[in-house]
Amino acid sequence: xxxxxxxxxxxxxxxxxxxxxxxxxxxxxxxxxxxxxxxxxxxxxxxxxxxxxxxxxxxxxxxxxxxxxxxxxxxxxxxxxxxxxxxxxxxxxxxxxxxxxxxxxxxxxxxxxxxxxxxxxxxxxxxxxxxxxxxxxxxxxxxxxxxxxxxxxxxxxxxxxxxxxxxxxxxxxxxxxxxxxxxxxxxxxxxxxxxxxxxxxxxxxxxxxxxxxxxxxxxxxxxxxxxxxxxxxxxxxxxxxxxxxx
Length: 246
Known about the structure:
This protein is about 25% helix and about 35% strand. It is α+β, with helices and mostly antiparallel strands and about 250 residues long. It folds into two domains: about 5-135, TATA-Binding Protein (2-Layer Sandwich), CATH 3.30.310; about 140-245, TATA-Binding Protein (2-Layer Sandwich), CATH 3.30.310. The chain is globular and about 50 Å long. The two termini are about 15 Å apart. Mean pLDDT is about 75; it is low at about 1-35 and about 140-150.
């Protein structure tokens, strides 16, 4: 799969899974270039998607960037470029991936830097105003996802649900768990439990053993990704469930 194809398909599918803001919702973040967009462009990354949505009931903007840099290099250059602008940014990581934050007086941006094939990177950035951050923190989900939310997809054992996003039109869903353990533990769990529930693995991991793994059941696709937070040591498990026609 070429980067161009990944740029069109995978980010669009992920972005579609984010809850779009209601038609009457305010546009709470400017469409003008933010520091993250400017620095990303300066280091050779391109913004490939931007959308507004709701996460656990609070407003947010998702921005996705991609380009021909290894994840560790992209994270280091991005952090350096933001700090050169006197901004508070921390993006610790390596070529397996990275997680980081950028804070300004108005906003918090959370970032996940992920492999997108050999020598390629995708950055998923969620921007929120501080009042929306407070609302999100106050209403953050806890416990396990109910079976009705993820039919045929077991919750990750011992994980706590920190993000739950669903597009009411497409029924595309993203679930994010935090837990102890290793990424390989999560991949092995779903490699066993998903086929047991009728899901079929779809090919190998083009981006290496740490790349997301996709499964199919009928018209549904389920993409499983797992990585360790370099700062906290916690395991992050992300499940993306969408219809294959998207």
